[in-house]
Input
Amino acid sequence: MAEYFFVFIFAIVALGVIAGLLLLSSFLGPKNPNTEKDLPYECGMLPSEEAKGRFPVRFATIAMLFIIFDIEVVFMYPWAVALDELKIFGLIEMGIFIAILAVAYIYIWGRGGLEWD
Output
């Protein structure tokens, strides 16, 4: 528990600095609200009509897929560091993990989830 003492002190100081800065900005910041400032900001222009049609979500879908498959690296790094201790059990477990991700990748590829057309 003694090794976490400085982490605890750091967390207390960080929270104190954050709270102090928030309080300081609320006291020293300018306070002149008006109706113009309270309106929602939309790229500097007032919306004149409703949006037409549906927006494509292709980029967001591929970005989410990238994040999902990128998390695989987060799990591979500690495995690679501890491979000497895990021996053959760790190798088999990582093979199963990669196989599951490969099946998911092939499924998404087959369904056209990686196409930009």
